[in-house]
Amino acid sequence: MENFTDRLYAAARPIWQESHHHAFLYELREGTLAPDRFAFYLCQDYVYLLDYAKLFALGIVKAEEEADMAWFAELVHSTLHGEMDAHRRLASSFGITRAKLENTKPSAVTLGYTGYMLGVAEKGSLADLVAVLLPCMWSYREVGVLFKDYPGALDHPLYGEWILTYASEEFGKITDWLIDRMNRLAQGLPEPALRRLEELFVTASRYEYRFWDMAYKKEMW
Ligand SMILES: Cc1ncc(CN)c(N)n1
């Protein structure tokens, strides 16, 4: 029998594919992305990740099993000290300080995406929370793993480092845990509940696409 996440992947695949061809990611892997667009992305993504870490903290609150609490705690830590450390390092190469990152005003898309995820997580079940946060981890892991093998994609010192963050074994390990957790949470749920989880997953995937687009256009409001 197919895993529930196979169904999620199939539903979001056209959106993920379109993201891979978006000018932001295309130019990033070619090494031609204008630095001001990448710097804009880093600042928006920094404030995005601050809220994303809160989503994992809500995972601790919603979890009923100690093992889940430990995983979500690990995810809070790896976001604040792993992924965001990488952002701080990359940002400093553009002369962007930590204070500037922290004080970034979120764009309409950033606010919309984080507000959507946090709203779902606050009101919904653990399954809802995992469905809405999974595209973030999984789609970035896919970008990292695909792009690292593109000829020349790692040549740009900063964009190459960004790609390797998401292609890393550590990032892959937590993504695999979330995929497995989604499958176990979906087990035995009736079709309307599965459809709802699919809708959350697809909506978050649409926000991922909009995030690349917002960054490329440096669009605030
Ligand atoms: C918008 C967004 N989505 C996903 C990721 C990967 N955690 C991220 N850094 N930013």
TrEMBL record:
Domain Thiaminase-2/PQQC per the UniProt entry, residue ranges: 10-217
TM region positions: none
Molecular functions per Gene Ontology: thiaminase activity
One cellular component term from this protein's GO annotations in UniProt: cytosol
Keyword Hydrolase: yes
Keywords (A to Z) from UniProt: Hydrolase, Thiamine biosynthesis
Role, per record: Catalyzes an amino-pyrimidine hydrolysis reaction at the C5' of the pyrimidine moiety of thiamine compounds, a reaction that is part of a thiamine salvage pathway.
NCBIfam families for this protein: salvage_TenA (TIGR04306)
Entry protein name: Aminopyrimidine aminohydrolase
Organism of derivation: Paenibacillus aurantius
